[in-house]
Recover the amino acids of this structure.
């Protein structure tokens, strides 16, 4: 893995060097002969349909309103499924083969770093609609933006609710063993230390594990009063089901990642009853209701968090292009100053491309997400 990390930037520079000189001119202005304005979407795998559906809806609505100077917007989708490094290769293909004027990704943090390298080299806007890895913003790449709350922002929301509002101190922080989940756990623990809170009991599990006996025994032996989960939805639901079988009554909290509807069915969502999640998605406001109704009409299901963030992400890029044009620098400049209200709430970016503000919380009650008052 260390060798891969060393080799990828070298290989990437080699691949890009033959393209960048000629592309700098085309990056300034797309050819007049282009019949569509293309936006690239990178998804984790071919099963990540929610991100595609949300993005398609944004494109469709923009085209109904005339597109960009009577040219329709076109969504170009590529999957990052495959060996490590596929994400950067697909980003390069979108830029140089498909001639997109901006990129969005609904993938994880590891792929996010690869795409960010491509964006930095080619000077194209890259907007992340799902990855919560805060180190993406620490690279100080001016082409990077994210409309999803970072692990640190999510941790702040959870700490405020658990430690400050509910006055709970004996906490277990439970995480899967994948990169994003472990990073979210690390950032939660880091924030508790910074805010002077009691250290949580940290517990890791294998995402493929079906036996949580030892983990649950450690929770019970430590007299834990609340449980915070960072993990993939399918594994998290198995764990929650085990908590219920053991008749454990501790309040449960979860990060935004647990709401990835690509990984679970609507039936699985019933296991989330009474769980409090980080989420700024509001489907009860005027924009949210309109989005929900149209999504259900088009796709026959209720939209989830991934679809909502994807919808807002593409709308941000469309808004920038409509107002600033298709030149890459102008898109970047417009996004850096944008004030936009979407189905996930108001969106502005700081000087590192991070979404400003602390995300809200919601609790599943009778299968319906209800906002948690601060």
């Amino acid at each position: 893995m260390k060798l891969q990390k060393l080799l990828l930037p070298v290989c990437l520079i080699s691949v890009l060097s033959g393209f960048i000189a000629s592309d700098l001119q085309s990056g300034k202005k797309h050819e007049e002969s282009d019949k569509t304005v293309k936006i690239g979407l990178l998804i984790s795998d071919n099963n990540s349909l929610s991100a595609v559906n949300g993005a398609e809806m944004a494109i469709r609505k923009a085209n109904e309103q005339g597109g960009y100077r009577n040219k329709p917007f076109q969504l170009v989708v590529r999957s990052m499924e495959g060996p490590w490094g596929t994400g950067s290769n697909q980003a390069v293909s979108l830029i140089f083969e498909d001639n997109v004027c901006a990129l969005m990704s609904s993938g994880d943090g590891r792929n996010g770093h690869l795409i960010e390298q491509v964006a930095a080299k080619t000077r194209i806007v890259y907007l992340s609609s799902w990855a919560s890895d805060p180190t993406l913003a620490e690279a100080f790449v001016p082409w990077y933006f994210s409309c999803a709350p970072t692990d640190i922002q999510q941790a702040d929301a959870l700490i405020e609710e658990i430690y400050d509002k509910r006055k709970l101190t004996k906490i277990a922080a439970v995480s899967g063993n994948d990169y994003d989940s472990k990073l979210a756990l690390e950032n939660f623990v880091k924030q508790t230390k910074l805010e002077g809170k009691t250290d949580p009991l940290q517990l890791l599990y294998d995402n493929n594990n079906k036996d949580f006996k030892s983990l649950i025994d450690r929770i019970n032996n430590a007299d834990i009063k609340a449980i915070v989960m960072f993990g993939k939805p399918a594994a998290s639901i198995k764990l929650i089901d085990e908590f219920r079988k053991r008749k454990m009554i501790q309040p449960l909290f979860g990060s935004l990642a647990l709401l990835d509807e690509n990984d679970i069915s609507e039936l699985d969502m019933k296991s989330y009853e009474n769980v409090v999640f980080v989420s700024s998605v509001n489907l009860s406001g005027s924009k949210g209701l309109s989005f929900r109704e149209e999504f259900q009409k088009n796709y026959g299901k209720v939209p989830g968090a991934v679809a909502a963030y994807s919808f807002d992400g593409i709308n941000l890029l469309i808004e920038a292009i409509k107002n600033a044009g298709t030149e890459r620098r102008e898109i970047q400049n417009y996004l850096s100053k944008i004030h936009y209200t979407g189905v996930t709430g108001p969106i502005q970016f700081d000087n590192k491309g991070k979404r400003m503000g602390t995300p809200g919380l919601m609790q599943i009650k009778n299968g319906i997400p209800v906002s948690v008052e601060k």
